[in-house]
Amino acid sequence: MGKVTLYDALKEIKKEANVDFFYSDKEVNVDRMVSANFNNADVVDALYTLLGNTYNIQKTEDGIVLISPKNTASFENEVKVTGIVTDGSGMPLPGVTVLVKGTKYGTTTDFDGNYALTVDEASTLVFSYIGYKTVEVVLDGKTKVDVVLQEDVSTLEEVVITGIVERKKESFTGAVATVSGEELQALGNLNVLESLKTLDPSFIIVENNALGSNPNRLPDIEVRGKTSVSTDNLRDEFGNSPNQPLFILDGFETTLRTIIDLDMNRVASITILKDASSTALYGAKAANGVIVVETVKPKSGKLRVMYNADFRLEVPDLTDYNLMNAEQKLEYERLAGVYTEATGGLAYIQKGLDAVYNTILAEVGRGVNSYWLNEPLRVGTTLGHSIYADGGDDAFTYGVGVNYRDLQGVMEGSNRETWGANIDLTYRKDKLNISNRLRINGYDANESQYGSFANFGQANPYFRKTDENGRITKFLDIDGIFERNDYIFTNPLYNGTLNGIDNSNNLQLVNNLQAIYTFNTKFRLQSGLQITKAITTNEKFLPPEHTDFIDVGYQQRGSYTNTRTDNFSYRLNTMATYAEVLGENHKITTNIRGEVEENTYERLGIKAVGFPLGTNGNPAYAFSYQPNSRPSTSQSKYRRVNLLASANYAFDNTYFIDGTYRVDGSTSFGSNEKYSPFWSVGAGMNLHKTFNIDPEVMSMLKLRGNIGSVGNQGFGSLSSVTIYGFEQYTNVFGQAVTVNTLANPDLKWQNTLTTSVGIDMTMLGNRLNATFNAFTKKTDPLIVKIDLPSSTGVYNYPINAGFMDTRGVEAILRFSPIYMPQDDFTWTIGVTASALKNEYGGFSNDLAGLNAQELKSASLVRYKDGYSSDDMWAVESLGIDPGSGKEVFLTADGIPTYEYDTDDIKVMGNSRPTVEGVVSSNLRYKNLTIGANFRYRVGGDVFNNALYEKVENISRDERYYNQDLRALTERWVQPGDVTQFKSISDISYTPISSRFIQRENVLIGESINMGYDFRDSKWIKSLGLSQLRINAYMNDIFRISSVRVERGIDYPFAQNVSFSLNARF
Hints:
By secondary structure, the chain is mainly β. 11% of the residues lie in helices and 46% in strands. The strands form 14 sheets. The chain has a 22-stranded antiparallel barrel. Residues 169-290 form the TonB-dependent receptor plug domain.
């Protein structure tokens, strides 16, 4: 470097070393001439050579170099202030800026977080660091000032992490929601998605009334509703739900199971991408939204160790069960005609029925009243541990962690063990940044050997649970009277005493390698490679003594099923980023990215039947394979490729536009439709800058909107070629071959056109924050599998048919009546809300066969133009005729009739709530936090299955099972009774009608929590801790509904109380 001005020298150093400078022109004479030559010199050393020792020079972790003159002033009341700056965990923070308020005079903390500064004793010091809340301290003569900086969630929201590119939220046109790991952990400790649903109204976990709180089930998730027809045959055994969002973990695609099992303590943030501007980056996979999860990155500095422990209690929730006791059940059977001979003329039969009745009556008189529901249940416990250690220097950082969790479900024998280990390494050298993240994780899960919880809901209360010797018998009886009358009632407790197996386990290895080379402040090149290998095994053994084999021949009793699935995938991407600032007000950022991926799935399954008594499920002891079967195999391989270009332009940080164009190629669709384009365009403006609004009144008022096209590949692998299979037999022509899968070479990609407008507001000095969004989504064409004639040998065939149009709004409003962050005292109340509806169109008569299937199976679903996927179809009922006890229907012509006619079926309800959201209140005072979050659903209809199956539709044989109490108390008995339900003695089939569709309003205690941080307590230092925090939670602690319906039919729901401990050393 020749003789140049200091300004030019700093400019050249900035370019070569990729750093930024912070200094005052009044304090540093940048016009003076300097001359020096540097060769691979350290930036700080080079600056000391240029400036001499009269300046303080500090380089922060974020690449900012602070230059300030050393203090030569003489203060009237001069003091030297020293101290240490740490983060919330007690770890030192290097590079924190410490300034005297109102001046540029100050210093920065060293590698150990220490600082020293000579100032006036009445000065106010300002401590600031990127990503942390600024702290001001009035000295008042103090010479020792230690400061703790807390992470600033609002700074997290300043950058939108999309998993591909990062954009400033201030100039981003998409609808996104970002929450921190701290916010997620404040709501619960089960998994990140259970907490996420409380924070954003667009993210909905659909309640599963059958599987309840089963720890091994995967939830159904929607972001801004559905985009696809939800039929089971639309996905193969390797596919996801076609309405499930895409999940991204640390920049790479992952599975819902991985996110569910992810250790919450590792999560740094989650971002929900909702509309075209934010999701078009993912093109063909983004129609259902994208969930971007970022884990904690290792930090440089001294070694720090973080330990987290979680303890959880799950209490079975049986409040919605309304079963009969022994006396009520016997009376129901009497009124239902169980003990009355049907013809009235066979006295010997009536005599036998009387004997049965009197035997049961005597047993009830002796006090037998068995409550079966509690038998297979327990208070489930969860115990989890995780340890993470990190450290390093500016060049190399490392992080190593392990975690383990044992979740015991509320049904005996059901549990889920998850474990994982991760190694995070980052190397920085000049312009090169290389990071590698290795993650190994797995699970071992078991289902309860008791089987479906519904078996216990059916067990009669007048049966004893054990015999006179306390043994659990295979059959239930009273003095053998039922056996003599050829009635068999199995004991639901019996199967739980056997040595059955229902296990699944998984081992997965994922390695993410990323390299970034920054040529200068304008141009950057990065590339990433992900390799995934996973093995999943499912094993199920039913012993020959199992009650499923009562009516099966000896050689067929007992079964063993084993299925192994192997998955291997790789993803490789490369992206170039160019950013330019033109003048002072024009900022342009562009990205070009390409990606290739391949996924391979292989499945091998066997089923053996017939086992000797006492065997443990070893298939070597099986008598044979299942009749007419053989080991099954399936293979699936699909490849995808895409090319992406995106750009963002901002003028004066006031007006901005986004644009994205992506082309995807996939083998999942028709061979003639291999490629499809996707795009988005968005624009917005910061109105608070346009109109120069006082920041104390309104610090943000942003208007944004966008439109774009995205796709959906959540169907598994839809074959693009016809696949044949060999049969077991031959004929004169040779080996028999059949068509296994019939391809549709012209199958088009499912394409969703999305529009979205929104407004973001921050007012009254950050006291009031609001976000409002309105959106539409039109998926055209849809992909549907239709049935083919049996002569083809193929069950179904994928076609393009119709479209789905969705419209919705969502809102988030939070207000802080108390807002004193400087004193750690805030109280915030909030409400979220979402509402949407969808409509089919363009089907014409294409899905007539599918509608016929739904009619045959007594389903509430239909696929018709002009109607919603959430509509509930049934015949309208006018209720029960008080005179006859029969149901009165209303025909399509409006005429009352006793005759049920499927031609009268019409829409009688909609399962989508009119509005759904969360009301919250959160208080923070010093180190104490208290929060309460309540979910509400207003409107929306439910099909009350308890009324349909346990009040009516009780067949002749089902009368012997326990039923809902309303089958006794609310059914028609005699003329003049005004009731909702048919005659108690009527055992005829009851078709679905509007009587069983009910409007529901719900209030749920979703999360009530309290936490305390002991970081300021001196006693934790004596334990070698820098931070200790304890949280307590109650989740789903109550549920108030306007409809009484059995919930958790196969596996009960649970109320949860849990605790967590976070310690840092």
